[in-house]
Amino acid sequence: MVQKDWKKSVVYQIYVKSFNDTTGNGEGDLQGIIEKLDYLAYLGVDYLWLTPIYDSPMNDNGYDIRDYFKVNARFGNEKDLKTLIKEAHARQLKIMLDIVVNHTSTEHQWFQEALKSKESPYHQFYFFKKSNDGPPTNWESKFGGNAWQYDSKSDEYYLHLFDVTQADLNWDNPEVRQEVFKIVNHWIDLGVDGFRFDVINLISKGAFKNSTAIGKEFYTDGPRVHEFLHELNRETFGDKGMMTVGEMSSTSLEHCIKYTREARQELSSVFNFHHLKVDYKDGEKWTNQKFDLQQLKAILMYWQRGIYEGGGWNAIFWCNHDQPRVVSRFGNDENEEMRQTSAKTLAIALHMLQGTPYIYQGEEIGMTDPHFTSIHQYRDVESLNAYEMMKRKGYEESEILTILSQKSRDNSRTPMQWDSSNHAGFTTGKPWIDVASNYHTINAEAALADESSIFYTYRTLIQLRHEHDIITYGDIVPRYMDHPALFVYERHYKDEVWLIVANMTSEVVELPNTLDIKGRRVIQNGTINEYEIGAYGAIVVAKEKE
């Protein structure tokens, strides 16, 4: 395929298990993606990011890989993937694979060999530590509990920063790195166009010492991480013109500039999640907390200004498979009018920023959190662990369910809502997780039939990015940062200025006297005049530079 400037591209994330099921087994599959390629091409996106499609026991829904070279039989086979790539390319869509190389499943052959003998070379593929006093350190797993698991046969502990079935790889071992290069090159040879690297900034571990907190200071943006990524770039995708993005856990601006500055030859772009912690309380995710708009604006602008002034590149996004639905989180899903209006404004506010926009499946039709009412409806290992943790701490059942309904990763993992038929047209069988009950009115078929729907706002925003260089390359200038309701900024490029004004509340807001919204209206949502802006209203105005 001819590669246009990837910086002008828009990525659509597909959570394969929940996208479209063609077999009736209740789980999405590769043929299901092929079936919906025309829909995605019509939306106008450029890349399709597929969550992991490799062979896996699915303890963490595919992020626990058992065989990197084999397609998960639940999703199809390699022939299906080749067909998907071919059919996507025929529609000018590119395929980006999600790859997990910080850890493997404990069912992976490497780990199974590592368990057989300390003398096995594969024992050095992971972090095994001898300790007579319990776990070697007090580091906590990101899914709860200590990050070390005891193995009775070797009388050692192995490190798992995530689930106990996800053992961390030892990247200090050059043999591990060579195996990773083989994996990445295999999929490049098959014809994929890019990669999303899961928690890639955790691959370099520092000193194995006790922490005053949870241990992340010893493995986040570790001592050799930039060396490792430069080597990965050089040995695999670096000369292929591919787009890559790294998921960065608890990272810093300084490191993200290094990860993405072109001359350093590491990655194209990065995800960071600081802006999605503005509804945490004192850094704690599992809390019943409303989001802080001032903090949200401040973090977005800190990263916008900082990463581009430093010569780096950022991914911009509201949603993914690990985050709640944005219209429920930062918008308003209490009624249909508010859902439509707030979803459009959130889209405008994000897509006018600089960076590569990511749209998560269903976001383009305003899918909401499912508002589950029973723990039995949840499937996510992190959420189930959090439920048990909160139970032990004495939380009431109703309080736990309220928190899960806000923060669980399952909020985004419910099936894609295609139409108003049974199970939202996702499957003819029993879905692996409940469909949100509002699928009768919120679905792609209804959105496509309504030219005023959220879908067409997203389609317009994608077209604007493709057509106007100011969105990709323009400088960003924050405005009215202290305003309690408005998110306002400007984009400057050559002789043009675009003004973006978004009301992030459910109230009508009076515009500041000094805010001039006269000019060519590029896109508008809601009721707006020179004096006030309606609930969740937004406008983008093009002006000539003074």
UniProtKB/TrEMBL annotation:
Domain Glycosyl hydrolase family 13 catalytic: 13-413
Protein name from the UniProt record: Alpha,alpha-phosphotrehalase
Keyword Hydrolase listed: yes
Entry superkingdom: Bacteria
InterPro entries: GH, GH13_cat_dom, Glyco_hydro_b, O16G_dom_2
Organism from which the protein derives: Staphylococcus ratti
Keywords: Glycosidase, Hydrolase
